[in-house]
Every structure is written in structure tokens, then in C-alpha cells.
């Protein structure tokens, strides 16, 4: 039986482990001719050259002009150990509107006698410098280009300091965006794009909105990255305007917002359409600061929060962790801890009016299997002054409360359910890596272990659910509270538990089941097959 991802509230969206699904979702097309490979070095290259391995071009743009759809461009980071830097003219150093693969990080070694030209891939990124005058990268059109191992720095533009990407399915792998400046999206700006950003570092950028990244529409994926040290008035780390961003396995740390949303600012969408809902999952949101919403600010937004650690953030106004303004986020297995400010979570509404006659829009979040510890007030709910369903209400199912001056406060409504734990969570450590490699994880004897409520939440197309580390949950007698699932010595999953198929006389039906070891102990099991209806059967392993 396939259980939808966010069944409650019709949020059947992607889970954090969409990392594997996205990376493995490429389709095989018809056979193509072998692509040509072009070479670029800003140190010894010349744009009069044919961009071959022994006669490279000087600029990346020249190689793009010569390349055809599907070709590859290799860009030197080092030329006989001399660092290479790439600059340009006009609005951008690189303008890309073809399906090309650009690979940076090459060490180009060459001699005249004997003639030698070697291009060796390294992990040193090829630097693209906007010089404070232009963007490093512009990608446009319904294309699927790939860029690997580049750094983009000192970029400038109104939308997207270091990079602007519009439309298409760009794949940005192992890139660095730093020192960019823009009105929106200091590091990069994505407009109506399905881009994949994997292993990307976005740091030290600034903007009015979206210091690190700005998302306008589309459904980009940010997987396994770092968003650090960016600044903005709203959305220090990232700002999403009606975008269905999917963020998973990302560290969003030490970003600052002068007004709202230190780590992120979600401006819409106010919709329950699955494909339009942003999902933030399996990530660490720590040490971010803002006036309101130290980690995150929701503005007329529906969103999913799954398996996140939201800790050590700070708000001078309201919501040390999260600020909700007329929003409907749904959270599953989040650890919300030690956020400074008047309260950890703050709920308020869009006011109504007598004329024109408009009712208020309340905040109605739901949080399931959550740890909320060490705040002045855990959750504060303002009142709209209207009766339900127009009153603000915080719904929590399965919560560990500890160390808060007050767990709940405010004139609004609360629905805390019947599963609440009032004990110290017993975290393994609270610091930062490497001294604390797994912050806010649970000790084996934590009262949060097996204390959660059952949830119908799985990876797309499977019966599996995982924790912040990608380990199967539940492990043991039940779901653990918070982002971490303690792995029990003995734990076995048979998936699917039931296989329903119809058959006609003489037809052979194959039922495939997977036995998964969800524990930490190696064991042996005997599988048997029996039939009481006279069917002939064969069991194979």
C-alpha cells in the first residue's frame, strides 16, 4: 500500500529523501553523436585558438559560441600551477542558452619540449569574478545545462548578484556563490526554474531580499548544500516568492535579516496544490538572526517542515525560531531548541476589516512529533478576536516540552492532543561540528525514543520513512520525537507488508517483498511460503 507523503491537509509532496529520486530521475534518450570537448584557460589561452586541448581559448564565452548542443567545455582552475580567473564584459561573464556541460576544476599542465598537454580534474573550483560590475552567470531558456566545480564571486545585478537563472532545468553541482550583491538574490536568483542545486555553497552574499538566494515561482531543489553568512532585510539565507522550493540535507547557518526571516522567508503560496508547496526537510537551521523569525518567517504560506533541527536562532522581536503570519505550515519530526527571543514559535494573522468587509486570515499550523525545549515561551498564539475557524490555533500531536519558561502562552487557541512528554530530551551534544558531529541527536535512553504518534508519511513510491540522517524510522516500538531516530539493535521491515494482485486461471503472479534490517544488529531470518487455497507456489530469494 502506498501512503501519500503529506496526507494531512492534502500535502502529497516530496520528502527530504527526494535527493536520490531527483538524482536518479534522468531519462535515457535516443543515441547521440559523441559530444565535442572544448578547452579554456584564462592564463595561456587565446580566443583566436580553436579551443582544443593543446590550443585552448581564453574566455568561457568563446567556447560556448563554438560549442553545439550536447558538447562539453573544460575550464582550467590552474595553468602550470598558476591560478586562472575568468572575467568578462557586458552584463555577465557567462551567458548560457544551450544544452552544454561546463566542467571547472581542471589543472592544465603543458610544455613545449617535449610537447605535453594534460588536463587533470581536481576539486579546485574555476573562479568566475564579476568584479562588482556584472553577474558571473546568466542561464535562460528551456534547457538542461550542467555546471560543475566553479566559484562565482563579486557579482552584481538587480536580480541575482552572482547568477540569474530563468526557466529550464539547470544542474548546478559543487558550485560556490560568494560575495554577490543584488536587490534580490545576492548569491543567485531563480525565476520559474526547475534547477537542481546539489553540493552548492552560498555564502557571504547580500541583498534587500534573499541574501543568499531568491526563488520566484518554479520548483528548484537545493540538496546537500550550505547557506551561510548571507545578509538581507528579508530572508537572510533565502527568500521564496510563491516558489515550490524543495530543500533537503542543507545547513542554513549564521545568516542575518534586518527585518524578518534570518534563515528563510516564505512569501506564499497560499495553496494546497501539492506541486506548488515548498518543502524544507532534513536540514539544520542554526545561529540565524532577525527582528522577527530568527530562523524562518511565513507570510501567507502553506509549507512542509520535516526532520529539521531549528536551534540557536535569535529574534529581537517575535519568533526566535519561527514567525507565522496568516500561514499554514505542517511540521513532522522537528527539533526546535534554544532559540532566543520572547518565544520559540509565534503565530499571528492578517487582520480583518469592517470595510470592505473582510474576515481575518488566521495561522493554523500543525506540528507532529516535535521537541520544543529551552525557550522563554515555547509557542505563543495571538487572537484574531473572531471565533473558530477564524481564530489562530496551534495544533500539536506528540510533543516533548522541557526547559521553557512557559510551554504555551497567548489568547489564541491550542490543541495539544493527548501525547505530551515533560522530561529532559537528553541530547547527545548541542555544539557545532566537528566537536559535536551530530547536534541535537537523542541518547539511547532519551524519553523521546518511541514516544511519538504514528504518522502516514513516506518516501514517494515506497513504504519507507527516514530521519534527518536518512536512517529508517520508526526503529523500535514506535516513532521517536524530533528530527533524530535512535536506531534500535533489532528492527526489521517487510515491504510491502501486503501485495494485492488479481489473477486469472493459469496466470503466473509474482509478488516481490523486501526484508530490510532497520536495526544495528546482523541477524538471520527464515522466510516461508504457504498456501491454503491449492495454489502452486515458488519462493525465491
Tell me, briefly, the overall form. Answer: globular
Percent of residues in β-strands: 35-45%
Low-confidence residue ranges: 1-31
Mean pLDDT: 90
Structural class, please? mainly beta
Describe the biggest sheet?
Answer: 26 strands, mixed
Number of strands: 47
**In DSSP terms, counting alpha (H) and pi (I) runs of 4 or more, how many helices?**
2
Fraction of residues in helix? under 10%
Cα(first) to Cα(last) distance is 22 Å
Rg of Cα set: 26 Å
Can you tell me about this structure?
The structure is a single chain. This protein is mostly beta strands. It has two helices and 47 strands. It has a 26-stranded mixed sheet that branches. A hairpin with a 2-residue loop joins strand 2 and strand 3 (82-83). The longest helix has 7 residues, at 60-66.
Give a quick rundown of the structure.
The chain is mainly beta and 541 residues long. The protein contains two helices and 47 strands. The longest helix is centred in the first third of the chain and has 7 residues, at 60-66.
Task: Outline the secondary-structure elements.
Layout: H1 18-23, E1 37-40, H2 60-66, E2 72-79, E3 82-83, E4 92-96, E5 101-111, E6 116-121, E7 126-129, E8 135-140, E9 146-148, E10 150-153, E11 156-159, E12 163-166, E13 171-173, E14 176-178, E15 181-184, E16 188-191, E17 196-198, E18 201-203, E19 206-209, E20 213-216, E21 221-223, E22 226-228, E23 231-234, E24 238-241, E25 246-248, E26 251-253, E27 256-260, E28 264-267, E29 279-281, E30 284-286, E31 289-290, E32 296-299, E33 304-306, E34 309-311, E35 314-315, E36 322-325, E37 330-332, E38 335-337, E39 345-348, E40 366-373, E41 377-381, E42 393-402, E43 406-409, E44 413-415, E45 420-421, E46 492-495, E47 514-517
Parallel strand pairs: 1-2, 2-5, 4-8, 5-9, 7-10, 8-12, 9-13, 10-14, 11-15, 12-16, 13-17, 14-18, 15-19, 16-20, 17-21, 18-22, 19-23, 20-24, 21-25, 22-26, 23-27, 24-28, 25-29, 26-30, 28-32, 29-33, 30-34, 31-35, 32-36, 33-37, 34-38, 36-39, 37-40, 38-40, 39-41, 40-42, 41-43, 42-44, 42-45
Antiparallel strand pairs: 2-3, 5-6, 46-47
